[in-house]
Amino acid sequence: METHAAHTPEQITSTIQSLAAQIEPYVIEQRRYFHAHPELSLQEFQTTEAIARELDAMGIPYTRPLDTGLVATLAGTAPDAYAADGTPRRRILLRADIDALPVTERTGEEFASVNDGVMHACGHDCHIAMMLGALRILSTMTDDVHGEIRVVFQPSEENGSGAKLMIGAGACDGVDGAFAMHIWSEVDAGTISCEPGPRMANTDWFRIDIEGTSCHGAMPQRGADAIIAAAEIVNAVQTIVSRDLNPYEPAVVTIGEIHGGTARNVIAGSAYLTGTVRTYSDAAHDLMPGLIERICTHTAMALGAEARLTDYTIANYKVENDDEASARCREAVTKVLGRAGIGSYRGTLSGEDFSEYLRRVPGVLAFVGTRNPQIGATWAQHSCYYKVDESVLVQGSMLAAQYALDFLAE
């Protein structure tokens, strides 16, 4: 595609829409390629190579600050894009995460995962494709880029380490604002939600270790059953949400693993639990470790065992959209999709490490709706049946391009 001259604001939007229509097959093709070739967190070597090939084809320079993932730079050619010393007038960071999940795909799609036990069940394949599409659009409109666009193709979102690694490598240095999209199964296809305030939750991980006394399974009175203590703790920690927190405070305490015992006829001498905590409010977030420790300690003690909260890790802080950035995003959605494109969503207690960027610069995460019952796109994120309405992908590309140009033009 040829490079276009500078435009009026109205012409910018119409140009984005026209270019989007041209590149839609490309965006879908890219999504299907990445969907078929998923890689786990910090193992995204082939994914990174494939992204690099696409950037090379567009003539967009990039760096590789980590073993996986990369950072692309699109320099504006508007007269005011850079100062005489080479400093950009403004710099916007666009983030796309690239890792997949340890899920065995059961969608039956022709482009289903070829990597056994690994699947793009959260939409990160879509994020890559949408951002490549945005770059295809923006690379032909550099005269409208009043500054610099930095696109971070980030590894390892699913285990919560990728954003911190990229930021530690300098990805956020000199950035004035940040933008990201998440394809989302609870928002209707054709709409995009970008409300201000908390959108995704504080995400914490914990482990509880339980020590009892092992003995013969036929003589339970001679020991202290660590599995019984673990089972009671599983139930007891649920009272944190129902009895220790304000009912108006969203929160979840989930036990995801329980391990204990060595044989069917032996009272377990030890066991452990792992789980996750999700909160919105800072107050509830701060309370959680102490509440879990209190309950596990005293519940185990009542059963003659001992329990300790041996690990409590803050994986991600909450994603909280900046008011001004959300308003800018809503306007961008209206420009490219019309008022019918404005979606409404209360938010989720799922976590996202895009929060690390938002702790450093103001920005917004937009939920790009993909729910479409007519094609079976109703499965939740992380499901082995997860499916998306691919018609929404180019809408994400348009939004990212419009948001970036609007931000830099201010």
From TrEMBL:
InterPro entries according to UniProt: Amidohydrolase, Bact_exopeptidase_dim_dom, Peptidase_M20, Peptidase_M20_dimer
Matches recorded under PANTHER family: METALLOPEPTIDASE, PUTATIVE (AFU_ORTHOLOGUE AFUA_6G09600)-RELATED (PTHR11014:SF63), PEPTIDASE M20 FAMILY MEMBER (PTHR11014)
Record protein name field: Amidohydrolase
Domain Peptidase M20 dimerisation: from-to ranges: 204-283
NCBIfam families tied to this protein: amidohydrolases
Alphabetical list of Gene3D superfamilies matching this protein: 3.30.70.360, Zn peptidases
Coiled coil: none
Top-rank taxon: Bacteria
